[in-house]
Design a protein that fits this description.
Chain lengths: ~190, ~400, ~575
């Protein structure tokens, strides 16, 4: 199974890589759109948050974000390890990444549920984080499924498209979140 | 592979052919230009009357664009016709044409010339734009309110604007307080009045959805956006009456939200009326209308009739009511409503039913009609605000409709 | 110089397996079947949307409301007419052309992701069902532009929500298709076919797909907010609760302006193919045509607020005027390049060429009225009037639909193996051209004179023009039946087309008609120049194709002659 890729396999891999890249380029635009919506809505208010509305918490989401960035590091480390025939390092790295990812979702879910209601400020926050959470969950579950398959020996150093693909998708989740984090908490 | 940029003619040019081609190009070019100008002369006949200073500028800009566009059209269609005639394949001729892939010079020419044309148009349009927009607020200002499906124009009476023969102490107390208050006293009319030569500004507010305020004769248009106040200004240069039209889809009555002409050639709905001068404006519109609200009739029914005629509320768009000349076809007929209202819902008197129908129109829908009537609320600041005093008067009037 | 490899002696080209109707009604990952599925479905919705247009024009014969039961019913007519024509006719039809032709033009066996391709098509079925279901739940009535608060608080039926979900599905379908096209074009071109050696139709699809992947997500964003406002009680577009109606307008138009280029760029690609083949001449200015498509795709993202000149912040009007004027330049380059293609050629008045010529004459009018609309002072007068309706139909019907018709006549023989009757095609063209022009040209005038759009009720002085428009529209409607008849006649009894009835050089013609399941017999080698007409080697290549893949039934006088001597090689 560890033989060189055939021409057909190489072609399929090239197609998948290009396809995934274009998909991500496309899909980030929805996040850009929501960012734009956030900016236009807040432009209508004298202050943001508006009068009488409490600001979002900063500490927990920042912690969660740090965890998410760390998870990206571990996911990438796992992919590199797999390519280097270091199966054990791959599996451990992904274990950590999954844990961190789950932690991120848990913290943000808590934020989502506990933010006090306001017509625009909390609503746009919830739409943005909720939309992102759907992606984090779906892609997180994909990561978990691929991890499970990897434990059963499904992938090796030459044939591991699922690992590569889900790694890149997880990067996408992180990049999208960084955009939202900046807009929601920093700017 | 790639682009072959050599022109590869497969026939020898006849002697003197070069200069002949140049002559043809010059002739064609002149034909284009004069043709374009000729086409542009139809401009006045496809515009409404040119009744504002803005209209003159817009029409001239359009005339220029039509001349240029017309010339380009003649060029393209001219070439097409020439090509169809000159280069059609004769029957049985299945040979190919010459393998010409392009001509860099020609391609640069037809990139640069359109770019220049577009630049000229942009600059000219910008100049017209700068001259027709206004930056400073203007004294002669009217507040327009758009709601589904009629326009109302609100005029202000302040102590300085009182009609000549009227003094403050002649006014009843609540009315005097309104006139001397900071905002002045409002009265509304279905028509927009102004006079010639005076730049006028209209502030625009909507009670419900987005509308758009358009006066074709003035060539001006501005959207009314829910939650915002916008404004538009123009300077009439011809006295006359000009239709006002809603130009943003607002619902089932969108097409009705425009001025119409009634059976007796009377103007119904939204019209701009430009009086020849301020004196006429005051004499024929402002002072009589101001007098009606400064000295309202004692009889509530008459007061109600006055309110409805003043079109502060958009009833005319939807209802038929012969006494007021209403021909709306969206809502139930109001003729004889003074009698019928008592029979509509058991337990409700005519008075109660009418009040309820205005404050909560969705409660008792007449069979065959949809729930489209706006709800007229009793609290100032809410959408479709109708104070209780107005409601009382309107109901009193409607109760008199017993024919 | 590359040629088709000679067949082994005695080897026969296997006849293509005849496909049955049932093959097209079920799930298939073959791009050719999917292409036909797209095109047939789109054409069905073209007829549906056209019927709605006939109702609109019937109503507009008189200045009062007397056909539809009320204003709401009328508003539903044009809302669905536009929504269906845009999202269920033109966009999927162009996707259908792309699906069928791009792999063939690139010598590939199929698209990069055949399964995804099928999924993208089948998303259209529930989307169409939702659109139609809207009629039973209170159909959408706020125009295809669905401005809130009319489309939120004031649209009480569920049809508007179904509409939004349907558009979501169509958007996803569109994006999946576009990803497929980009990857196929990028990765699956044959040896020797660089970007600047591929057919211009592929360039057009590439540019279109780039727009789709970048812009459609904004539509998804807008629709999501609309749905939330309608069903989840949010207030993104409710100013009384802090919302803003301009958010919708900006986000919606950020997609919907590039959307018009999605609708027309593939048409531009079809034009280049048809003009070159039927005038027997190389495309003039290939590189300019290819790059101008990309320029239009990118510039198209900078102009959106010209749809909002009367509602946007006044200060921003001028920048958008500038960008809108600029985009006229690459479009003009195309028109002149196409004229250059025709000049000096050997023009055959096939129905495909007739519609291409029709495109050139009508699209230029649409382009000119577009530049006029870019001029802010003029736009302020004609925004939301029939002038805009006229402009959009000149570019979308006089442009896109004429190009679609040209493409249909051009590629019908390849897809079905039969010819469409040329005389019927000419009749179709004549009726369409006359009907189209007299339907839409007077609309410029009636709009400038003072008739707004989206009304069933208008000032009586416009009735004469409206009657002319409506009668011409009925003629336009009737013209469609000529095409339907021609298609039916061709399928049942049309002349066999052979591999390459138009003697074209692009690779889709170097195989039987219809192509076999794997598209080609052996490994296809493209001719060095997809538009290399007028040379000895092109003639020899075409003879080769005829010999290998068979000629159809031809009329007696149409015997090919050798290429011109001394015409360059």
């Amino acid at each position: 199974m560890d033989t060189q890729l055939s021409r057909q396999e190489r072609m399929a891999l090239a197609n998948r890589r290009t396809g995934l890249f274009i998909f991500q380029l496309s899909w980030i635009m929805v996040f850009v759109c929501l960012t734009f919506v956030n900016l236009q809505i807040r432009g209508n208010f004298a202050s943001w948050p508006p009068e009488g509305v409490t600001s979002l918490n900063l500490f927990l989401p920042t912690l969660a974000t740090a965890g998410l960035l760390l998870s990206a590091f571990f996911v990438g480390r796992g992919l590199r390890a797999l390519r280097n025939h270091q199966r054990a390092v791959f599996l451990t790295s992904w274990q950590i990444a999954l844990g961190l990812g789950f932690g991120f979702v848990a913290i943000m879910a808590y934020e989502w549920l506990s933010v006090p209601f306001s017509e625009q400020y909390s609503t746009i926050f919830r739409v943005m984080t909720g939309f992102h959470a759907v992606h984090a969950l779906v892609i997180g579950i994909m990561l978990a499924l691929v991890y499970h398959g990897a434990r059963s020996g499904e992938y090796n150093a030459t044939r591991h498209w699922a690992v590569e693909g889900t790694t890149k998708l997880w990067y996408f989740v992180v990049v999208a979140w960084m955009l939202f984090y900046v807009i929601l908490y920093i700017v | 592979m790639g682009v072959n940029t050599n022109i590869n003619l497969n026939q020898q040019e006849p002697a003197g052919g070069q200069s002949l081609s140049v002559i043809w190009i010059v002739v064609a070019g002149l034909g284009m230009i004069f043709g374009g100008i000729l086409i542009a002369t139809i401009t006045p006949s496809i515009f409404p009357q040119q009744a504002s200073a803005e209209a003159v500028q817009v029409d001239n800009l359009f005339r220029f664009m039509l001349a240029v566009g017309g010339a380009i059209f003649l060029l393209v269609v001219g070439v097409l016709v020439f090509v169809i005639v000159r280069f059609r394949a004769r029957p049985g001729d299945l040979a190919d044409g010459p393998p010409i892939h392009g001509n860099t010079t020609l391609e640069m020419v037809w990139t640069i010339i359109p770019a220049i044309i577009v630049l000229v148009l942009t600059v000219y349009s910008y100049q017209v734009w700068v001259s027709i927009r206004t930056l400073q607020p203007i004294h002669n200002s009217v507040a327009a309110v758009g709601q589904r499906f009629a326009w109302a124009f609100n005029y202000v009476i302040t102590p300085e604007d009182l009609p000549a023969s009227v003094t403050l102490d002649q006014l009843e107390e609540p009315i005097r307080a309104a006139v001397t208050s900071e905002a002045g006293m409002n009265f509304s009319s279905a028509q927009l009045h102004t006079w010639m030569g005076q730049q006028m500004q209209v502030s625009l507010r909507t009670e419900d959805v987005n509308h758009a305020f358009w006066i074709p004769a003035m060539r001006i248009k501005q959207d009314l956006l829910a939650g915002r106040e916008t404004s538009i200004s123009f300077t009439p240069i011809e006295a006359g009456t000009y239709r006002i039209i809603c130009a943003e889809l607002c619902g089932s009555g969108h097409g009705n939200m425009a001025g119409t002409v009634g059976f007796n050639d009377d103007l119904q709905g939204a019209w701009l009326i430009v009086h020849p001068d301020e004196v006429t404006y005051l004499r024929e519109f402002y002072e009589p209308e101001a007098a009606k609200v400064l000295f309202p009739p004692e009889d509530p029914a008459l007061r109600g009739r006055q309110i409805l005629v003043g079109a502060a509320y958009p009833c005319a768009t939807c209802h038929v009511l012969d006494d007021l000349g209403w021909v709306g076809n969206i809502g139930p007929n109001l003729n004889n409503i003074g009698v019928r209202a008592a029979t509509r819902v058991s337990g409700l008197t005519a008075d109660q039913y009418l009040r309820n129908s205005i404050r909560h129109p969705g409660d008792y829908l007449v069979p065959g009609y949809s729930n489209l009537m706006p709800q007229f609320n009793a609290v100032a600041g809410e959408a479709n605000y109708m104070p209780d005093t107005d409601l009382d008067a309107i109901v009193a009037y409607l109760l008199t409709q017993q024919q | 110089m590359a040629t088709i490899s000679r067949p082994l002696p005695g080897a026969a080209i296997p006849a293509a397996k005849q496909l049955r109707l049932s093959d097209y009604l079920r799930w298939s990952v073959d791009h050719k079947i999917i292409g036909v599925q797209y095109m047939a479905t789109a054409f069905f919705f073209f007829l549906f949307g056209g019927a709605l247009a006939m109702m609109i024009r019937w109503e507009l014969l008189t200045p009062t409301l007397d056909v539809m039961s009320d204003g709401t019913a009328y508003n539903q007519l044009f809302t669905m007419h536009a929504s269906i024509m845009i999202f269920m006719w033109i966009i999927p039809m162009m996707a259908g052309f792309g699906n069928y032709l791009v792999p063939l033009m690139l010598g590939a066996k199929d698209m990069a992701f055949p399964w995804l391709n099928a999924l993208a098509f089948w998303l259209i079925v529930p989307a169409g069902a939702l659109m139609i279901l809207g009629y039973f739940a209170g159909q959408a009535e706020a125009g295809w532009t669905a401005y809130p608060p009319l489309s939120t608080i004031y649209s009480l039926g569920d049809g508007q929500t179904f509409w939004a979900f349907a558009l979501h599905l169509l958007g996803i379908s569109s994006i999946l298709g576009a990803i497929n096209f980009i990857v196929t074009i990028k990765n699956m071109r044959p040896e020797g076919m660089g970007y600047f050696q591929m057919p211009l139709f592929c360039w057009a699809i590439l540019a279109t797909s780039i727009i789709i992947v970048l812009a459609t997500p904004f539509l998804a964003g807008a629709l999501t907010l609309l749905i939330l406002d309608r069903v989840a009680g949010t207030a993104f577009f409710d100013p009384s609760r802090g919302g803003d109606v301009l958010v919708w307008q900006n986000v919606f138009w950020f997609y919907s302006h590039p959307a018009v280029y999605i609708m027309v760029l593939p048409g531009f690609g079809i034009l280049s193919e048809v003009l070159s083949v039927h005038a027997r001449k190389p495309v003039f200015g290939y590189r300019a045509l290819a790059l101008s498509s990309m320029a239009i795709a990118l510039l198209g993202f900078t102009v959106w607020a010209h749809h909002m000149f009367t509602s946007m912040t006044p200060e921003l009007r001028i920048p958008f005027m500038v960008t809108s004027m600029i985009i006229a330049v690459p479009t003009g380059i195309k028109i002149f390049s196409w004229l250059g293609t025709l000049w000096g050629g050997k023009i055959h008045f096939t129905p495909a060429m007739l519609f291409a010529l029709g495109f050139l004459s009508m699209f230029v009018i649409g382009g000119i009225s577009g530049v006029m609309l870019a001029a802010v002072p003029f736009d302020i007068h004609v925004h939301d009037t029939y002038f805009v309706v006229s402009h959009l139909h000149f570019v979308l019907f006089g442009g896109s639909v004429f190009a679609i018709y040209a493409g249909m006549y051009h590629w019908w023989p390849k897809v079905t193996g039969r010819m469409l009757n040329a005389n019927l095609g000419k009749l179709h063209f004549a009726l369409t051209y006359v009907g189209f022009f007299f339907t839409f040209f007077p609309q410029h005038i009636v709009g400038m004179l003072g008739m707004p759009r989206r009304v069933a009720v208008y000032a009586p002085e416009f009735q004469t023009l409206n009657i002319i428009i409506s009668v011409a529209a009925f003629l336009l409607g009737i013209s469609t039946f000529v095409l339907l008849y021609a298609m039916a006649l061709s399928l049942s009894n049309g002349k066999r087309a052979g591999a390459n009835p138009w003697r074209a050089l692009t690779l889709e013609w170097a195989t039987t008609s219809p192509p076999p399941t794997h598209n080609f017999h052996g490994d296809p080698v493209p001719y060095r120049d997809p538009y290399g007409y007028g040379t000895e080697s092109a003639f020899r290549y075409l003879e080769d194709v005829d010999r290998r893949y068979g000629v159809g039934e031809r009329d007696d006088d149409k015997v090919p002659v050798p290429a011109l001597r001394g015409s360059g090689d």
